[in-house]
Amino acid sequence: MTALLEARGITKRFGGLEALAGVSLSVRKGEIYGLIGPNGAGKTTFFNVLTGFYPPDAGEFIFDGQRLDVRAPHEVAAAGIARTFQNIRLFAHMTALENVMVGRHVRSRAGVLGAVLRDRATRAEEAAIHERALALLKYVGIEHHANNLARNLPYGDQRKLEIARALALEPRLLALDEPAAGMNATETAQLMALLERIRHDGVTLLLIEHDVRLVMGLCDRVAVLDYGKKIAEGTPSEVQADPAVIEAYLGGSIA
Ligand SMILES: Nc1ncnc2c1ncn2[C@@H]1O[C@H](COP(=O)(O)OP(=O)(O)OP(=O)(O)O)[C@@H](O)[C@H]1O
Predict the structure, then answer these.
(1) CA 126 to chain centre
(2) pLDDT of the chain along its 255 residues, tens only?
(3) Where exactly are the structural domains of the chain?
(4) Using a 6 Å cutoff on CB, does residue 19 contact ligand 1?
(5) What are the distances in angstroms from CA 99 to CA 136, 171, 203, 207?
């Protein structure tokens, strides 16, 4: 399998703190790749550097064979990478449907002028965006919430809505920061089925997750970060048995 995303020596410092110390890893096309590690290990920082929130102090990302040169978060979306956040970031006062339509507009061709003039081509594009947004809500299983305000959705459904909005960008890589956080067992099981389906439909997944059952049950490979360094990489069972990993998790088993 070829690499979709390669991180080469990614380093990020905050003052004297090295949050990422030369992290290299490679996510293959079509796999579900987990990024795990204790609190403060640098996982979210890795996502933030990947998605243009912070520039790296050293290192580079190669995406689908090309150097990823992003200076702002919207550029990474155009390159084919979408993400969700640890703390849900939805437009709380917009409906579920509108939240997904906003994501979709990044891919629209009408632009600002078209939106102002609202010519026939623009109206046709709007209708298509509306259709597609509805289809995405259905895909993640929350079409019944289309006209409800995002903030009124149950927590697990807000997480699914975030995923629908990210999918509206038609990413080749979907980066999920703790997608199961705050979910109960039923919601987590539904989420796992959804993530499998997304992968099956051709999107590569990179996810940060603390839920061990989800990581072990879903990921093809995982990398373990500890104090900004990659200390292990392999299949979930390989990593689980790695002494350095057990040590990083304070001497306990991570299962
Ligand atoms: N903007 C920032 N300014 C200063 N320090 C930061 C910043 N962002 C992250 N850090 C620090 O970098 C380190 C790595 O943080 P990060 O959030 O990436 O860890 P994490 O592995 O995602 O942890 P968690 O599992 O708790 O979310 C931490 O020590 C954190 O305090």
Answers:
(1) 26
(2) 689 999 999 999 999 999 999 999 999 999 999 999 988 999 999 999 999 999 999 999 999 999 998 878 778 888 999 999 877 788 889 999 999 998 666 555 556 666 666 677 778 888 888 999 999 999 999 999 999 999 999 988 999 999 999 999 999 999 999 999 888 899 899 999 999 999 999 999 999 998 888 888 999 999 999 999 999 999 999 998 888 888 887 555 454
(3) 3-80+171-251
(4) yes
(5) 11, 17, 21, 22
- CB of 43 shorter than 6 A to ligand 1: yes
- Nearest Cα residue to atom 2 of ligand 1: 14
For 3-80+171-251, CATH number out of 1.10.10.60, 3.40.640.10, 3.40.50.1950, 3.40.50.300 equals: 3.40.50.300
Helix (H) or strand (E) holding 11: strand 3-14
Q: Is 42's C-beta closer than 6 angstroms to any atom of ligand 1?
A: yes
Phi/psi at 133 (nearest 5 deg)? -65, -40
Looking at ligand 1, which atom is closest to the CA of residue 45?
Answer: 18
Q: Which class for 212: exposed (0-12), middle (13-18), buried (19 or more C-beta within 10 A)?
A: middle
User: Does residue 40 have its Cβ closer than 6 Å to ligand 1?
Assistant: yes
Q: Is the CB of 44 under 6 A from ligand 1?
A: yes
**12 Cβ closer than 6 Å to some ligand 1 atom:** no
- What does pTM read for this prediction? 0.89
Residue with CA nearest ligand 1 atom 17: 44
Q: How many CB atoms lie within 10 A of CB 57?
A: 14
Give the number of the atom of ligand 1 that is nearest the alpha carbon of residue 37.
Answer: 21
Is the shortest distance between the CB of 37 and ligand 1 below 6 Å? yes
